[in-house]
Every structure is written in C-alpha cells, then in structure tokens.
C-alpha cells in the first residue's frame, strides 16, 4: 500500500474522495470482490441445493436439499458472531484465533489486509468458503442422517474443525508461512472429504435397499446444479487474490481448463471400461477437476492446469470406480456421493501438484518475494532444487495435518452429538424418507408403485338431469 493519501494532492473538489468511498478503496477491486463472493454463494444456494436434491432418490430429495440450505444459513450467523475471528483474527494459540464478533461498523468498514477493499468484503467472501465446505461435507451423509443431529453438528464442526484449518494455513497459524494453498485445496476440499467420510462412519450406512439402488431422481436438474457449481468456481478461484488483477484472470482460465480436461478424461475412461458414457460420471469428473486446480489456480501455467486436469480425471476415477469396490476400507463406510474421492483425493492431488508445478514468478505476484516455493519442477532448472524439495515436503505436511485434525475432531463431535440425539434416523423413517423427516415430499406426483385413490363418482342433483335434457 502506498504511504500517501489524497490529502497530499491539490485535487479539484469534484475529484475529492467522499466518506462512502475513501481514498484507499479501489472501486474495481471492491466491485469484483462482491461479484466473486456472490458467485461462490450461488455454488451452495442454489447450486448444491439443486445438485443434492436431484442426485438422490426421490424420497430423499427434500431432506438432502434442506441439509445444504440449513447449513448455509447457520454458518453465516456463527461466522460473524465468533468463527471469522477464530479463523482470521489475532492468535489465541498457534492453532486458532481469539473468538470475537465481526459485526461492528468500524470493523466491517475498515480496509482489509491488502488495504484496497472494505473488511466486509473479506468477511463475506470467507463466509462463502466456510459455508460451501460444510455443504460439501453433507454429501457423504445424505439419505440417513437425523436432521436434528445435523443441526447440532454444523456449528460445532465449523467452530472446532474448519476454523482451525483456515487459521493454521491462511490466518497466520504455524503452517501459514510454508503451505501453498491458493484457494482451499487443503482448507476446504481435503477437510470436507476427510470429515465427510469420518462422519459417514459414525452415522452409519443408508437403508440396505437405498445403498444398493440409489438412482438420481432428476438428471436434468442435477446438471443444472452442476452448472452453478462449475461457473460459480469463477468467483471461487478468481476472487481469492482479493484484487481484479492478472493472477485472478489467470486463475479463472486455469480453473475452467482443468475442469473441462478432467471431465473429458473421466468420460473417456467410462467409455473405454464400461462401453457407455455416464452423465453422473461427467459431473464427478468436472468436480474433481475444479477441486484439483483450486490450491494452485493462480500460480501454475495453463499447461500445468491441463496436466492437473488429466490427473484429476483419472486418479480419482480409479479410486472411486476400482479401489472403492475392491477395498474393505471403502466398502465399510457409506459415503453417499463419494465425497472422499471427489474432494479428499482430488484435494490431496491438487495440493501436491501445486508443490510440483508452482511457477516462481507467479508465486511472487501472488504472495510477494521469497514467500513460497519454487515448485519442485521449476527448481530443477533454476538451481534451487533443495528449496523445491522443501516446498513439496511442506505440502505433504499440510496434507497430513489437515487429514489428522479433521478425522479426530469430526469423530469427537459425532460422539458428542450422539450423546444428545441419534445420529441416524430410525429404521422405519429410513423406509419413508422425506415425509418422515419433514412431513413433505419433493414432487406432488404419484409414483414408486403407489395406487391411485379411486375417484368418487359425480352425484348429480335430481333437478339437474331435466335441465340438461332441455339444453340438449
């Protein structure tokens, strides 16, 4: 930030700053940040609400969509009351900041850390990240979790799991000087994938019939929700620099390039192995590409994004379509939408590839000189190979910490919640689904083999026939 202000210049009155837009406020950056934040919010509501409500059986459509809708609301309240300061405030311990409100006018209207946009932009942008993390986690629990248990679980997980990862890697914690995580491959996707899988273990499986036969109830709506998720990632990765600059533009191109490549690779593998392309597979491939590029979107070259897309379309495909069916470890846990594969595996892959492919000059543009890296690949050519290996090692440490913390804390939260309410719906309610959980159904249609009620015959009053005859 420059060390001068408008007071140092003799400007005409028409060009003098006003109280609503002080000299430090960059209007272009502010406008872009608000736009990017809205795009990230649209990924959750309506994006994942529609995606979840469409990817499950008809009897779970309402419950699945409502889990995402509820989480989005409660995270915002918790975020401004205490969680934002725990993630990005002054340090209480090396793992977390001091819990405090982020609601005062003075706090929200002061400049953010880079001094170009109001703090309110940063608070709301980081809320959108926190909210989508919890909503992604929910994908592992659809089709059987007691909604009352989910209501308790969300604020506890946000407080004791998400804020710790955000603070340690982004907010000034002990890993912040070392880990490359451009927009949340570790903080968001690895944590949601590991926590979702862990919570799925504690909640237990779906009804046996649901687990073996769980077709989506609306493929077209599923693609609509996936579209919100894909295009909303423009704000997800494009908004992370907090400025409308070159890194944001590069991150957006890399994001969509990686997602498209990953989708094509996933569909190709489906056609080669199963002789048929799968719409659900295409959506999964899109998601793994978006997740994989996230930790390195603004700091890798486009050829690196293509490589990351090829790997995110193949490695998670292998873990989901092959290993998941062979290993007892995966079969013993009912991860409804395969969040472990699409987010944990793809998040680890992206984090490690960022440590390999991060370009030195892009790292400098994003973080400043001598902050991170270089990537191991580039270190081979600039005589800094020891620094490249060190950065790659830091990425492994980040993977291990986020994995261990989320597995342990999520388990403790699930155990605590289970002492208050049942984590899983009872067997009779699992047979019924939405009507048992909420007294509502997704579609006002008869289906699933139900018999239509007999239509009562119309009783005509005695005088009507004579009138009808005269009319005829």
Summarize the structure.
With 472 residues, this protein is mainly α. The protein contains 19 helices and two strands. The protein has a two-stranded antiparallel ribbon.
Q: In words, what does this structure look like?
A:
This protein is mostly helical. It has a single domain, classed as Ammonium transporter fold (Orthogonal Bundle). 65% of the residues lie in helices and 1% in strands. The chain contains 19 helices and two strands. The chain has helices at residues 27-55, 61-88, 105-109, 119-138, 147-169, 185-203, 208-212, 219-238, 246-274, 279-293, 302-326, 328-331, 339-357, 360-367, 376-379, 385-418, 427-432, 434-438, 463-471; strands at 91-93, 96-97. Strand 1 (91-93) and strand 2 (96-97) form a beta hairpin. The chain is globular, with a radius of gyration of 25 Å.
- How many helices in DSSP terms? 19
Give helix and strand order, one letter per element, not per position. HHEEHHHHHHHHHHHHHHHHH
CATH class: Mainly Alpha
User: Mean pLDDT, rounded to whole units?
Assistant: 90
Shape: globular
In CATH terms, what is the fold-level topology? Answer: Ammonium transporter fold
Helix content: 55-70%
Q: Total strand count, please?
A: 2
The order of strands across the largest sheet is 1-2
Instruction: Give the distance, in angstroms, between the N- and C-terminal Cα atoms.
Output: 89 Å
Number of domains: 1
CATH H level, superfamily name: Ammonium transporter AmtB like domains
Low-confidence stretches: 462-472
* Most strands sheet: 2 strands, antiparallel
What's the multimeric state?
Answer: single chain
């Amino acid at each position: 930030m420059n060390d001068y202000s408008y007071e140092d210049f003799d400007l005409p009155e028409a060009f003098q700053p006003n109280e609503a837009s002080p000299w430090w406020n960059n209007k272009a950056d502010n406008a872009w940040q608000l736009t990017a934040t809205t795009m990230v919010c649209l990924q959750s509501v309506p994006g994942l609400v529609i995606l979840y409500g469409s990817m499950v059986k008809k009897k779970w459509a309402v419950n699945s969509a409502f889990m995402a809708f509820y989480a989005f609301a409660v995270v915002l309240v918790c975020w401004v009351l205490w969680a934002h300061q725990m993630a990005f405030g002054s340090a209480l311990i090396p793992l977390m900041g001091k819990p405090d409100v982020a609601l005062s006018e003075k706090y929200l209207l002061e400049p953010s850390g880079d001094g170009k946009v109001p703090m309110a932009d940063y608070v709301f942008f980081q809320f959108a990240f926190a909210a989508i993390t919890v909503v992604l986690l929910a994908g592992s629990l659809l089709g059987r979790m007691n909604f009352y248990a989910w209501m308790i679980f969300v604020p506890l997980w946000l407080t004791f799991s998400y804020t710790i990862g955000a603070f340690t890697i982004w907010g000034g914690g002990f890993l912040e000087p070392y880990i490359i995580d451009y927009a949340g491959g570790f903080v968001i996707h690895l944590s949601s994938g590991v926590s979702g899988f862990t919570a799925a273990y504690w909640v237990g499986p779906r009804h046996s019939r649901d687990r073996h036969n769980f077709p989506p109830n609306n493929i077209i709506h599923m693609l609509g929700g996936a579209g919100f998720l894909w295009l909303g990632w423009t704000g997800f990765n494009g908004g992370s620099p907090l400025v409308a600059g070159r890194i944001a533009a590069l991150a957006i191109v890399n994001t969509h390039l990686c997602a498209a490549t990953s989708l094509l690779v996933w569909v190709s593998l489906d056609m080669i192995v199963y002789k048929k392309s799968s719409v659900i597979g295409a959506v999964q491939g899109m998601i793994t590409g978006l997740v994989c590029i996230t930790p390195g979107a603004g700091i890798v070259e486009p050829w690196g994004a293509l490589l990351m897309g090829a790997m995110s379309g193949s490695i998670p495909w292998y873990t989901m379509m092959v290993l998941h069916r062979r290993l007892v470890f995966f079969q013993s846990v009912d991860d409804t939408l395969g969040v472990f594969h699409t987010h944990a595996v793809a998040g680890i892959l992206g984090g490690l590839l960022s440590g390999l492919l991060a370009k030195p000059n892009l790292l400098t543009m994003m973080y400043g000189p001598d902050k991170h890296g270089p990537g191991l690949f580039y270190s081979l050519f600039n005589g800094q190979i020891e620094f490249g290996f060190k950065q790659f090692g830091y990425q492994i440490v980040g993977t291990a910490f986020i994995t261990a913390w989320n597995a342990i804390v999520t388990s403790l939260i699930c155990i605590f919640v289970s002492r208050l309410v049942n984590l899983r719906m009872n067997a009779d309610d699992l047979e019924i689904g939405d009507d048992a959980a909420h007294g509502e159904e997704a579609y006002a249609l008869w289906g699933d083999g139900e018999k239509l009620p007999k239509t009562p015959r119309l009783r005509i009053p005695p005088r009507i026939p004579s009138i009808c005859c005269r009319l005829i």
